[in-house]
Amino acid sequence: MNERQNGQESQVQQGKSRRPWQRRRKQSQQQQPPKKQNNYAFIDSQNLNLGVQKNGWKMDWHKFRIWLAENYGVTKAFMFIGYMPDNESLYQQMYDHGFLVVLKPTLEIKNVTPEQKPGEKPPERAEDKPPVKGNIDADLVLHAMKELPNYDKAVIVSGDGDFFGLVEYLIEQKKLLRLLPPNRRYSTLLQGFDEYIEGIDQHRSELAYREYKRSRK
Fold first, then answer.
1. Does the first or last residue of the chain, that is N or C, have fewer Cβ atoms within 10 Å of its Cβ?
2. Which residues in 169-186 are b (16+ Cβ under 10 Å) and which e?
């Protein structure tokens, strides 16, 4: 009888010696933190800005940067902008919000009126400002390719069909996470990538800039 009791006690002790190890093993498996995402966003600022304005709202860039990080694990967000000397404060503001600003030199496009002969100086008017062209498509594609080894997946923010080749290649390399056009009127060339497309206008309530005006007494 004593031998039996001693055998039972030894089994209990052995069981006790195993349980903490098993418990620690389970806890260590459960407490392993999820792998941190390292995704990059490449943003066509002109396409995005004009796209949301056509839908009647204005982007809050601070909210947008946080939204990219929280929803898509974006650690670096490259903002491609045509450079204009008068907008230095805007570029600094974007940088302060957490964007990596890539500036592209711009060109002034001078319109020729029907009455004006080529080479002739147009009549000067104070309200006239020459339109500015800054094509950032090539720079965006170049950066996406140069940074390819450094990110897990890419988020392309544009609805421009000029990025068809880039998007197609990223999908082939299993490197595309999302394609974010600003509204539903994006290029028909991108319609074949429906499973990757998510319209930014769907998140207007989260991302819109709201001006708060003081009420008068």
1. C
2. ebeeeebbbbbbbbbeeb
